[in-house]
Amino acid sequence: MKYEIKSFFDKDTWTFSYVVFEPATKSSIVIDPVLNYDPKSGRTSTQSADEVVAFIKEQGLKNEWILETHAHADHLSAAAYLKSVIGGKVAIGEHVTKVQAVFKGVFNLGDEFKADGSHFDYLLRDQESIKFGGLSCKSLFVPGHTPACMAYQIEDSVFVGDTLFMPDVGTARCDFPGGDSKSLYQSIKKILSYSQDTKLYMCHDYPPNARAVQCLSTVGEQRKSNIHVNDGVSEDDFIQMRTHRDKTLEMPVLILPAIQVNIRAGAMPAKESNGAVYLKIPINVV
Asked: How many domains is the chain partitioned into structurally?
């Protein structure tokens, strides 16, 4: 097999991270790594990220990229930590600047925070390809959940971020700043235009009815069975469903700490004069 995929599941945030690697060259990339965070104590740990590190070291891999599908609202990114331990350029879609600009205002970040994407090593454009070993990873602009979401295609596999969930779970919410259900529908249709047997790797799973957690679906399965966006669902139907459903959803538990870290490419704010790092919690704003 030309490439292999290893998945990692963080049970606290229901998040999948991935290492994609080429056995022949030992070249790898990491997609959507998780930094553990306890909202009760404000403490972080690298337990989930260290599982990724251990695998890369065991396999003797050389990591070249750390890719984020978007600025996540449900978990903190471990991109900065992984870069310091295993290397790799941290990349995200170029439209992350829109997300940075919004949340710079929400958190009243000063002039020291530049909403220009410069916290990341590289900003990816739609349809742009990056190389690792003999493999190519193509970026797909799939806005809707956020205005900056990207999916990543490596041969017959697509890492869909939060655009799609497993068929019995449905699709991502669209009520975050810059989110748009019409855009999400169009983005999903772009992904589902691939061949029926294209493999789709989820960023999250929230299994109903005691089903085991799963990360892998196909275009064919989604087009047939996705409860929100199968082939029988029109754009108008989807927009109506998504708008109604999003009004019933609570904010993710970690949205306020997560966004502050993730718009900084997984880095924490600078230490203050007492040597401590602080995250802001705006009151009655979000």
From this structure: 1
